[in-house]
Amino acid sequence: MSETPTANTGQAQPWRDDFSRVLSPVFGSPQLDLVRGQGAHVWDASGKEYLDLLAGIAVNSLGHCHPAWVKAISDQAGQLGHISNFFTSPAQIALAKKIHEVLDLPTGSAVFLSNSGAEANEAAFKMTRRAAGGGRPTIVAVDGAFHGRTMGALALTAKAAYREPFAPGVPGVVHVPYGDVEALAAAIDETCAAVFIEPIQGEVGVRQHPAGYLRRARELTTAAGALLVLDEVQSGMGRTGYWFAHQEDEIGEGVTPDIITSAKGLGGGMPIGATITVGDANTKLLEAGQHGTTFGGNPIASAAALAVFETIESEGILEHVREMHDWLKSALLEIPGVASVTGKGLLLGIELTAGASGEVPDSKAVAARALEAGFIINPVAPGRLRLAPPLIITEEDLKPFIAALPALIAG
Fold first, then answer.
1. Could you tell me if 123 and 286 are in contact, meaning their C-beta atoms sit under 8 angstroms apart?
2. What pLDDT, in 10s, does the model give residues 128-145?
3. Residue 261, annotated ligand binder?
4. Known binder of ligand: residue 380?
C-alpha cells in the first residue's frame, strides 16, 4: 500500500506515477502534489512553498485552513456528519437563512442546496424547462460562457471543444455573440424559456459585459415572459468585493434575476452549490419529487459555508477585497508586458502585450515559469492570465509576485 505523502518526503515522482496508474486521466498530468496549505500559501510533497493565486479556481475564499472554517467542519463532524434529505439539520437551515439575508430575497424565495456549480446550473436548467411547459424550446446562453460539464450545463457552455465529443447534446440551447445586445434581442422571442448569463465571464480571461447589457437582458426577458438566470458560481461569495457580483451597481445595473446559481467560494473548499429562486412563482417551478440530490445540504458542507459567510462579515473581507483590487490592479498595470487588467475585486484577468519580438508572450509558458518560481496562476486563454487568489490575501503576500512578474513575462 502506498503511503500518504507528507511535506519534505521527496516522494514527488513516485506519487505522480501512482496518480497515472490509479486515477482517471481527464485532468491530464498533475502539475503539483500538494500536501499542505495555510492562508494564501501551499506546499508540495518536497516541501516547496507556493503563493496560491488561483485558490482552487476561486474556491478557497478564506484561504487554506482558516481556523474558523476548520472549527466549523470539525465541530459539525463531531455532532452530525450526514443525513438524507428526508430530514434537515440546523446547519442547513441556518445557511439558507443567511443566503436569504445577504441577497435580501423577497418572501417565497428558496434555496436548493447541491454539491457543485454544474449541479446548481442543472437544477436551474430544469426549472426553466418547467417554466416553459414544453411550449418554449429555446434557452439562450452567451459565447464565452462556462456553466459546467454535466449534460445540461454543458449545453449552456459555449466552447464547442467541450460539447462536441459528447454530441448529441441537450437540444434547444442557442449561443449569442458576447456583448451583442442586438443579437440578444433577436434571440429572445416567444420561443425563449430563459437566458443564462455570467455577470463576469472567467473562462475566456475574465471579462465583464458592456454597460447596459444585463439591464437590457432583464428588459427583454421580462417582456418575452422568459426567465433570467445569473450564474454567480465564480463571481459570487465576495469574489468581487460584494456578496454577489450583480449586487454592485456597475455590474448588476439594478437587475433582479429570477434564479441565481452559486458554488465555488460558497463552501470555502467544501463541495456545495446553491440554486436560488427569487420569488414564489420561481420557487414553484419544481415540485416535491421532481429534483433531488443525495449530498446537497450535507450538514458539514452547510456548516463550512456558514463559517465562510460569518468570517467574511466578522473580518471585513468584502471591504478588504475592494481595497486589494485597487492595489493589485495598479501594481499590475505598472509592469512591462501587461496591456490591461480586467475584472472586479479579486477576480482579475491580465492581458499580455507584445514584447520586443513583436509576439504576445505565451500565457501557458508564463504560467509554467511562475509555477517554477513558486506562484500558482492560470493561463486561461492565449495571451491572458487569470488571478483568483484567496480573499484574505495581503499586500505582503503579493509583493514577491509583483516583483517577479516582469521576468516571468519576459521569459
1. yes
2. 999 888 789 999 999 999
3. no
4. no
